[in-house]
């Protein structure tokens, strides 16, 4: 099942939750009346776009949790421009960081496109570039960080960022649908990812983890179909698959060489792949803080279910073990 279909199913299930949130976000904000002006003076004074509020003024936050991400994106965008152009800036550059301007996300996005055009050309963009897509402030902000990191990867030496680079959450480097699904599950209170944010294949790990979680614990759960996806705790009932022996040895490889511990009896698991090597019985399972190989016969996974699993070698994931039972965990 594709990430898109899973995401669509999750979104449909919680559509009715969005109305109260939307109403809460549209409350009017009060503003102070300007002080009376002496006769002969103008009643309105234009404020230059670059002006910042004084420390004593209380400025409303127009962007919620996205404000810090926007400020960091502007900072990193300027650092990237300086590293390539020095003090010069391309024609059309606005440089805005006016947090009172509701158009700030669009202005930063515009400068990102201007810089990409200057450095790469009008018709060239890095693979996976999102581009300017009308959406919510949070989504536009997320897209800015995603594309800014892609541009930096394209322009700068491998694994290098200029001193002072703020960066963003690793999830923002992933595909739109993956980001949305993961955030939806987390905000629904049913999902805590265990993928390693520092791993080079983090986006592949988190995509696989989130989709398998949704498939096994939500979309295939009778209670989810009866009460709604986020109307129950998927962990209040036993998991679909678990370890059924006291001797389930876990390994980081399908050849059963790199042993990392014994999975406790009753531990919930999600099978995601298996070894296709001849005579091998190893299956790749995911759980709370681990992604390891184990003999499928040490679980309640049937042989038919085991044979239906995809080849673990094609999944592009790196096994790890960080649970309490792991050796050195």
Question: Would you mind describing this structure in some detail?
Answer:
This protein is of the alpha+beta class. The chain folds into three domains: 64-168; 182-227; 241-321. It is built from nine helices and seven strands. It has helices at residues 3-13, 18-24, 66-85, 104-120, 137-155, 176-187, 202-219, 222-227, 303-307; strands at 241-242, 248-251, 259-263, 268-274, 282-287, 290-295, 320-321. The strands form two sheets. Strands 1-4-5-6-7 form a five-stranded antiparallel beta sheet, with helices on one face. A two-stranded antiparallel ribbon has the order 2-3. It is elongated and about 65 Å long.
Layout of helices and strands, plus pairs?
Layout: H1 3-13, H2 18-24, H3 66-85, H4 104-120, H5 137-155, H6 176-187, H7 202-219, H8 222-227, E1 241-242, E2 248-251, E3 259-263, E4 268-274, E5 282-287, E6 290-295, H9 303-307, E7 320-321
Summarize the structure.
Helix 3 (about 65-85) packs parallel to helix 5 and helix 6 crosses helix 7.
Features:
single chain, 7 strands, 329 residues, alpha+beta, elongated, five-stranded antiparallel β-sheet
Mean pLDDT: 81
Uncertain runs are 14-28, 36-56
SS-based structural class?
A: alpha+beta
Q: State the helical fraction.
A: 25-40%
**What is the rounded Rg?**
25 Å
* Largest β-sheet summary: 5 strands, antiparallel
* Number of separate structural domains: 3
């Amino acid at each position: 099942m594709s990430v898109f279909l899973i995401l669509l199913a999750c979104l449909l299930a919680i559509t009715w939750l969005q109305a109260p949130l939307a109403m809460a976000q549209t409350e009017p904000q009060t503003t102070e009346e300007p002080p009376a002006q002496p006769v002969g003076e103008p009643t309105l004074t234009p404020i230059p776009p670059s002006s910042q509020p004084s420390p004593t003024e209380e400025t409303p936050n127009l962007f919620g949790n996205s404000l810090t991400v926007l400020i960091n994106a502007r900072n990193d965008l300027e650092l990237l421009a300086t590293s390539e152009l020095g003090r010069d800036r391309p024609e059309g550059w606005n440089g805005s960081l006016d947090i009172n301007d509701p158009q700030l996300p669009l202005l930063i996005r515009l400068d990102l496109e201007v810089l990409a055009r200057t450095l790469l050309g009008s018709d060239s963009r890095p693979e996976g570039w999102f581009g300017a897509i009308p959406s919510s402030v949070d989504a536009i902000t997320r897209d800015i960080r995603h594309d800014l990191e892609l541009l930096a990867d394209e322009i700068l030496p491998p694994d290098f960022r200029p001193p002072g680079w703020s960066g963003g959450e690793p999830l923002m480097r992933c595909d739109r649908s993956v980001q949305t699904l993961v955030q939806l599950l987390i905000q629904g209170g049913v999902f805590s990812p265990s993928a390693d944010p520092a791993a080079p294949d983090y986006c592949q790990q988190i995509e696989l983890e989130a989709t398998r979680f949704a498939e096994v614990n939500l979309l295939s759960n009778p209670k989810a179909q009866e009460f709604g996806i986020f109307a129950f705790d998927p962990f209040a009932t036993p998991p679909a698959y678990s370890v059924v022996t006291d001797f389930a040895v876990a390994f980081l490889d399908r050849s059963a060489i790199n042993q990392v511990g014994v999975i406790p009896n009753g531990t919930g698991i999600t099978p995601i792949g298996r070894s296709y090597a001849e005579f091998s019985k190893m299956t790749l399972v995911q759980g709370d803080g681990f992604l390891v190989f184990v003999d499928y016969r040490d679980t309640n996974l049937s042989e038919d279910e085991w044979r239906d699993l995809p080849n673990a070698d094609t999944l592009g994931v790196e096994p790890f073990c960080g649970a309490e039972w792991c050796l050195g965990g």
